[in-house]
From TrEMBL, chain A:
GO terms for molecular function: flavin adenine dinucleotide binding; oxidoreductase activity, acting on the CH-CH group of donors. Residues 217-374 form the Acyl-CoA dehydrogenase/oxidase C-terminal domain. Residues 26-106 form the Acyl-CoA dehydrogenase/oxidase N-terminal domain. Keywords: FAD, Flavoprotein, Oxidoreductase. The lineage of its organism: Bacteria, Bacillati, Actinomycetota, Actinomycetes, Kitasatosporales. It holds the Pfam family Acyl-CoA_dh_N. The keyword Cell inner membrane does not apply. This is Alkylation response protein AidB-like acyl-CoA dehydrogenase. It comes from the Bacteria. Its cofactor is FAD. One of its GO terms (cellular component) is plasma membrane. It comes from Kitasatospora kifunensis. Belongs to the acyl-CoA dehydrogenase family. Residues 110-205 form the Acyl-CoA oxidase/dehydrogenase middle domain.
From TrEMBL, chain B:
Pfam families: Acyl-CoA_dh_1 (PF00441). Belongs to the acyl-CoA dehydrogenase family. It comes from Kitasatospora kifunensis. Its cofactor is FAD. It comes from the Bacteria. The lineage of its organism: Bacteria, Bacillati, Actinomycetota, Actinomycetes, Kitasatosporales. This is Alkylation response protein AidB-like acyl-CoA dehydrogenase. One of its GO terms (molecular function) is acyl-CoA dehydrogenase activity. Keywords: FAD, Flavoprotein, Oxidoreductase. Residues 195-335 form the Acyl-CoA dehydrogenase/oxidase C-terminal domain. Coiled coil: none annotated. InterPro entries: AcylCo_DH-like_C, AcylCo_DH/oxidase_C, AcylCoA_DH/ox_N_sf, AcylCoA_DH/oxidase_NM_dom_sf. PANTHER family: ACYL-COA DEHYDROGENASE, ACYL-COA DEHYDROGENASE FADE28.
Length: 393, 341
């Protein structure tokens, strides 16, 4: 599959489904079936087994033709985390059932990983899955901070299936049907005022064994695929110069000379440099990946992104002076998606605090860089070889 | 924009690194500094004549500024005492290439204060007079490229005196140059040539700063893996791991910025001045921080004369001021990115 073949395929799709005439969903389904959803996926699963770098060719052609996109769900939990995990560990049947509606956005996914007692120490989780008489699993426990649980049709879930072995070994990975009567979702309001994430209570939830991903007891290994993809999905977007938050701040600076002070000018320039350096760092990582030399920079992307987002949003509030003292809206809302740029500075400032917590805290990412990239020795661990049920909680 | 290293660049790096490893290990640099010896002429001959690095700026000879940047990375990592920056980078850029300098047989430098500043030398009837302080790589220079008031460039080969200064950076000593009615040859009257040479110098210096930062990070990581206190390797303490992870991220950023600047200069990209301003303001600060962390995390030994860490700190700090401070480059950026004060 080369560039020319791809372009031909795109033009065939556009001819059969003229974007201005057909329904968005019909178009997206047809695009998936034509293998133009994610070209590096296998045939029949929305792809053509082509090199990942060719996706840009497809996207550019379709954008130019005014075709509808599956954006804004592009970076959601489904696309960013569930899909690569299903692709790697799912059976053919599971892949066919889940990937198409996931990609078209018909079905939203959420991630039932964190628990009140297991955040950074995710492998300590206590939610139990026990086989029942009919060969299914019964799941009981509580999950927390679950983004989009209120709109999700499916969830990726990890649960403990063997408490007698050390904590990393007794975990199994499932796909949970969020319409099961045992699933109860309660909004959890956050510092921005909205309830973007939730508490999820699981009471005798039934999961058929055919909705298990990977072998029993192998859940931690499967979860690594999800978590690695999560780090790349957050902060790994390609942006033009002055794309993202720095662009918003720079525009305000240009349009509002009355807000400028010498001190703010110094800081703005510093942030501008940091933003450009981070952009170049991401660009270099992508070039490395495309050239088949994956570098360890990936873990740093999210760390750098979180720090910059927090500095820039804090700066923006200060720059706005009196306006910075206001807030757009404290109404409790349950958004379908986080609209980081669609709201005002105060919201961005508060929401950015989550960037260094969600998807692995900055502290945990530093541990990963120090140990796996720099090769520094791990800290002494007291919980490694102890059966999970004997750990103090 | 290509931010990676080509195969040819990696080969060049390997041969420069091997040579520096054999002929100029850091212990030898330290010994030269302690004995108050200046540049190592034998080392320069090996680099410039045997490896041909002095002529890399000339595309006609198959070179490229991207390759010059790779050599600077290695020279930063090794602190090898050579006049590469003054001769093969600054003077060569100002002359738009020069056979005498490219062969490495002779060296030159650009006669301006290393910390920046406008030309002060005056020219009348082809003779130059003036005093320029704190010039890098002047002590060994056979040929001076002298910017004069107004921005024209002249070459001077005799009729000047050079007096060494006691410099913060012991591996790149500075000197004062006095021109007393010295006969010169005109190179160009176009002040843009000088400006472009300084832009090139500042953009490529970022690669030297990257090399310094890399050495400091790697050396510190190695030391903390071995050094034990409290019955465990110090590198297993999270307080230290997190500092090194942050430093690593800065070095990764410095590499992307330095490569972007070198690539933009090499390809004469329209946004080269902007990418140079970004690299110059970022990499200088990263190199200083890396050297400071290196000394701190080595503890008492890091404070000693016998450990080479101080040489890196001195070079990093001097480099941060050289060819414009980070603040100066950010002020440039304010114009280039339309972010007025
Ligand atoms: C906006 C948002 C959305 C989220 N969405 C989801 C979701 O959809 N699904 C889901 O499963 N989870 C989600 N999370 C949860 C998130 O993954 C966890 O909050 C995160 O992993 C941290 O766990 P914790 O909150 O229990 O903090 P803790 O682990 O209790 O950590 C508290 C503090 O201690 C630090 N710390 C912990 N361990 C160490 C260590 N070993 N060394 C040094 N410092 C340490 C942490 O960095 C943190 O600063 C979301 C979180 C946020 C903020």
């Amino acid at each position: 599959m080369n560039e020319a073949d791809l372009r031909t395929r795109v033009h065939e799709l556009l001819a059969a489904y003229p974007p201005s005439e057909v329904d968005t969903l019909d178009f997206l389904r047809a695009r998936f079936d034509a293998g133009l959803a994610w070209v590096h996926f296998p045939l029949g699963l929305g792809g053509l087994g082509a090199p990942r770098t060719l996706q840009a060719v497809v996207d550019a052609e379709l954008t130019a033709a005014g075709a509808p996109d599956n954006d804004p769900r592009r970076i959601g939990i489904g696309l960013g985390m569930a899909a690569p995990t299903i692709l790697r560990y799912g059976t053919a049947e599971q892949q066919h059932r889940w990937l198409r509606p996931l990609w078209t956005g018909e079905e939203v996914w959420c991630q039932l990983f964190s628990e009140p007692g297991a955040g950074s120490d995710l492998a300590a989780l206590a939610t139990r899955a026990v086989p029942d008489a009919e060969g299914s699993w019964r799941v009981n426990g509580q999950k927390v901070w679950t983004s989009s649980a209120h709109t999700a049709r499916w969830a990726i879930l990890i649960a403990r299936t063997d408490p007698a072995v050390p904590k990393h070994q007794g975990i199994t990975y499932f796909v949970c049907d969020m319409t099961d009567p045992g699933v109860q979702v309660r909004p959890l309001r956050q510092l921005t005022g909205e309830a973007e994430f939730n508490e999820v209570f699981l009471t005798d939830v039934r999961i058929p064994d055919s909705d298990r991903l990977g072998a029993v007891g192998e859940g931690w290994r499967v979860a690594q695929t999800t978590l690695n993809n999560e780090r790349v999905a957050i902060g790994g977007q390609r942006t033009p110069r002055e794309g993202g938050l720095i662009g918003i701040v720079a525009e305000t600076w240009r349009e509002r000379p009355e807000l400028r002070t010498a001190e703010l000018h110094q800081r703005l320039l510093q942030h501008w440099v940091d933003a450009e350096v981070l952009r170049l760092t991401g660009e270099r990582l992508r070039q490395q990946l495309a050239a088949g030399q994956p570098g360890p920079e990936g873990a740093g992307g999210k760390l750098g992104f979180a720090r910059l987002a927090q500095q820039l949003t804090a700066f923006e509030v200060e720059l706005l002076a009196e306006e910075g003292l206001g807030y757009d809206d404290w109404t409790l809302r349950r958004p379908e998606l986080v609209d980081f740029n669609g709201r005002e500075a105060g919201y961005r400032y508060l929401r950015a605090k989550g960037n260094s917590i969600e998807g692995g805290t900055s502290e945990i990412l530093r541990n990963i860089i120090a140990e796996r990239v720099l090769g520094l020795p791990p800290e002494p661990r007291t919980d490694k070889d102890v059966p999970w049920k004997e750990l103090s909680r | 924009m290509n931010l990676l290293y080509s195969e040819i660049e990696e080969e060049l790096r390997a041969s420069v690194r091997d040579l520096l490893h054999d002929r100029s290990p850091i212990e030898a640099v330290l010994a030269r500094v302690s004995a108050d010896q200046g540049y190592d002429p034998a080392l320069w001959r090996a680099l410039a004549v045997e490896l041909g690095v002095a002529g890399l700026q000339d595309p006609a000879a198959g070179g490229s500024l991207r390759e010059v940047a790779v050599v600077l990375e290695e020279l930063g990592r090794s602190l090898a005492p050579t006049p590469f920056l003054g001769s093969a980078v600054l003077a060569t850029a100002a002359l738009g290439g020069d056979e005498r300098l490219a062969s490495g047989e002779r060296t030159g430098t650009l006669v301006l204060p290393f910390s920046g500043g406008a030309p002060s030398v005056r020219e009348t009837g082809g003779r130059l007079t003036g005093r320029v302080t704190s010039v890098a790589d002047a002590l060994t220079a056979d040929l001076l490229v002298v910017p004069v008031v107004g921005g024209a460039l002249w070459v001077v080969e005799r009729g000047f005196t050079v007096t060494p200064r006691t410099s913060l950076d012991q591996t790149r000593p500075l000197a004062d140059v006095v021109l007393d009615d010295a006969p010169g040859q005109l190179v160009t009257e176009d002040p843009a040539v000088l400006e472009h040479a300084l832009l090139t110098g500042a953009g490529l210096l970022a690669s030297e700063q990257l090399g310094i930062a890399e050495w400091c990070l790697t050396t510190t990581v190695e030391y903390l893996r071995e050094r034990r206190q409290f019955n465990r390797p110090l590198g297993s303490f999270q307080a230290l791991k997190h500092r090194l992870a942050d430093l690593w991220l800065e070095v990764v950023g410095a590499r992307a910025a330095a490569r972007a600047a070198a690539d933009a200069l090499a390809s004469e990209a329209a946004d080269a001045p902007l990418l140079v301003a970004v690299a110059a303001s970022h990499c200088g600060t990263v190199a200083v921080r890396a050297a400071e962390e290196c000394i701190q995390l080595h503890g008492g030994i890091g404070m000693t004369w016998e450990h080479p860490a101080h040489l890196y700190l001195k070079r990093a700090k001097a480099d941060q001021l050289a060819l414009g401070t980070p603040g100066h480059h950010r002020a440039r950026l304010a114009e280039l990115a339309n972010l007025p004060a």
